[in-house]
Amino acid sequence: MTWRQATREEIYTYYAEEFPRYVDDLPEFITADGPKQYAVAFRDPHPVRKDDVPDKDFIRRDTWQTDASGERTSPEFSTFEDVVELIRHPARNDPLGRSRFALADPEVLEEPEPRPDAVYYALDHWKRPWALLVDIDAKEIARERAADTVFRDVDEQDDEALLDAAGILDAAPEGYPYAFEDIDRAIEYGFEVRDIFEDDFNAEVTMVVYTGQGVHVYLLDTDPAHRYDEQSREVLNDLLLESYEIPIDPVVTADRRRVARLPYSLHADVCSIVQPIERADFDVRSATPEVIAE
Q1: Rounded Cα–Cα distance for residues 248 and 230 (Å)
Q2: Is 60 exceeded by the pLDDT of residue 18?
Q3: Which one of 132, 142, 259, 278 is most buried, counting C-beta atoms within 10 A?
Q4: pTM exceeds 0.85 for this model
Q5: pLDDT-above-90 percentage for the chain
């Protein structure tokens, strides 16, 4: 088993044929107008209409138009199919319309329609408390493992040299800054965090999402007793990092402006479907899309 980048054609085919089958399986809080934003990342920067604005390789688009006071006025997306159309054809269906800051129309450019390398949604939400998310990345696990196993003079700031000296760059999937065992360990950590949420926080609604290079672990209870303020998130970070020694990214937990990979979107760098999982022994090979496996 190895990994590679998905081609432009594979990305388009996935969102045109396979992704729509998963829309009904999305978590109930991910709707056309619930998250405050959707975001799309591109492999190659795409021009915008305004000549003196740099090309964009990442865009955020609000789900509602708002007035000067921040109150909602009208939704940008009528149904989730409108969101899907933005994902399939970001420039053609840019909610900014003919604004000078919208993506430029591919029909008047030599550049082709941009394709999404990644699709995100905002954790900040119009209709419910902000979702609490913990990020566990295989890259960080691999670096820590390399640092523990390399016993020679390697510049600690040179990650590539460190990973190469530990043999991680040559391990499957070759060329990536982690090995499959690091992804498996990230998944195991994810279920440990879920157990902590349920046992220590009495959480009733949790979710573990395989992201392609690690996991996101959600605490989704809407009970006001589960506060999502800055202080409680700092306490959670300290608990997981120091008491349980779980290698999370504390910035992700703390930042209300964060976006997260949309479940069932395609992680195009590794040809894997981002998806909720129920078992710590999840086989990452099962996440390869049908359109690519064929």
Answers
A1: 17
A2: yes
A3: 142
A4: yes
A5: 74
Tell me the Ramachandran region of residue 100: left when phi exceeds 0, alpha when psi lies from -120 to 50, beta otherwise.
Answer: alpha
- Give residue 153's pLDDT band: very low, low, confident or very high (50, 70, 90): low
How do 72-75 and 64-66 pair as beta strands?
antiparallel
48-101 pLDDT per residue, tens: 999 889 999 999 999 999 999 989 999 999 999 999 999 999 999 999 988 999
Alpha-helical regions (H) of 124-272: 138-149, 159-165, 180-200, 230-238, 250-254
Residue count (the chain): 294
Q: How far apart are the C-alpha atoms of 259 and 92, rounded to whole Å?
A: 23
Question: In DSSP terms, which residues pair with 58 in a beta bridge?
Answer: 41
**Distance, CA of 219 to CA of 208 (rounded, Å):** 9
Q: Which helix (H) or strand (E) element contains residue 81?
A: helix 80-88
- Contacts of 282-285 spanning 24+ positions with Cβ under 8 A: 282/187, 282/210, 284/180, 284/183, 284/184, 284/210, 285/1
Distant-in-sequence, close-in-space partners of 119: CB < 8 Å, separation ≥ 6: 38, 39, 40, 41, 87, 261, 262, 265, 266
Q: Which fold has domain 132-259?
A: DNA primase, PRIM domain (3.90.920)
C-alpha to C-alpha distance for 120 and 102, rounded to whole angstroms: 18
Spell out a b/e string for 24-53, using b for 16 or more CB atoms within 10 Å of the CB, else e: eeebebbbbbbbbbbbbbbbeebbbbeeee
Nearest residue to 117 (alpha-carbon basis) of 292, 235, 268, 291: 268
Per-residue pLDDT, averaged over 4-8, amounts to: 93
The residues, any chain, with a CB within 8 Å of residue 231's CB and separated by 6 or more, are none
The answer to whether the beta carbons of residues 136 and 217 sit under 8 Å apart is yes
| pLDDT tens digits, 172-203 | 999 899 999 999 999 999 999 999 999 998 88
Q: Which residue has the tokens 């998905």?
A: 6
